[in-house]
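Hey L., structure's done. Input below.
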Amino acid sequence: MIDHPDAKAFVLHWGEMGSRWGVNRSIGQIHALLYLSHRPLIADEMCATLKLARSNISTGLRELQSYGLVRLVHNPGDRRDHFTAEGDPWEMLLRVAAERKRREIDPTIHFLGELNARLSRDTGAPPHLRERVARLHEFTVMLDEWYDDVRVLPKSNLFSLIKLGGRVARAVLPRWAQS
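Output:
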């Protein structure tokens, strides 16, 4: 599966990056292996290639499926479960962003909203505390609304926007605000 040294380097690096992204190394390696594979793989192949326990592979596959990065496929005449990874990097990014938003951002916005409401009624709370929580809540709600607006744009529009990069800011902002 990963006989080429660069493929092996990619799998190892993706595993290392996985630990920095909040998932364990084996999940990153499983995803990398499936992403590079030209065909769906069974769990036993992943175990042998990555030298991981079957339980690690099973746990990793469930986690990757929950993100929508890996899906189960069936081969006619073969009763074993085969797995394949999403091959479109843009789609991978969108799926990870949506799942991280659901798991991390949405609960934080909810918490900040409740905290902001409580503090706004609490006359004994220090003004700087109320003001900072209110600003943070407003900021996260604004980012959430921006995300909702951006995620429904066609992929071609998003690519164009990314390619424009800093030119967007220079076109939108007045000259004095650009320095």
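The helical segments are 5-20, 25-36, 43-50, 54-66, 89-121, 127-151, 155-164, 166-172. The domain at 5-85 is CATH 1.10.10.10 (Arc Repressor Mutant, subunit A).

-- N.
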